[in-house]
Amino acid sequence: FGRTGDDLTLTIPVAYSELVLGTTLSVPTLDGRVGLKVPAGTVDGRTFRVKGRGIPKKSKTGDLLVTVKVAVPSELDDAAREALAAYAAAEKASGFDPRSGWPGA
After folding, report:
1. Do β-strands 64-70 and 7-14 pair in parallel, antiparallel, or remain unpaired?
2. For 32-50, what is each residue's pLDDT tens digit?
């Protein structure tokens, strides 16, 4: 955990597929774990606010700020490599360009 004032911060590694398809993550807090719904199409680096799960104070409790960060595998087996290559081909065929609108494109 990190801390900013009364808020706690946490970065959670996720798979690319979890961001694309959506998932529910089990996130640690100071008093147990909570489920955090990550909607389909979430971008890498997005921060979610879990209300009331930060540092407790007399007047109010801070929040837990959870940032999702894609973990890239260093190695893939043959089946995963083939599946990823097929996905990349389908993505390209659909016209998706991740640099569309980017100044250097």
Report:
1. parallel
2. 999 999 999 999 999 999 9
Element holding 60 (H helix, E strand): none
Q: Which amino acid is at 103?
A: P
The rounded distance, in Å, linking the Cα atoms of 86 and 23 is 22
**CA–CA gap between residue 98 and residue 105 (Å, rounded):** 10
pLDDT band, residue 105 (cuts 50/70/90): low
pLDDT tens-digit map of 7-24: 999 999 999 999 999 999
The gap between the terminal CA atoms of the chain, to the nearest Å, is 37
Cβ-in-10-Å burial (0-12, 13-18, 19+) of 85 comes to: exposed
CA–CA–CA angle 46, 51, 55 (5° rounding): 105
Coil vs helix vs strand at 30: coil
Whether this prediction's pTM lies above 0.90 is answered by no
Tell me the C-alpha distance between 84 and 16, whole Å: 11
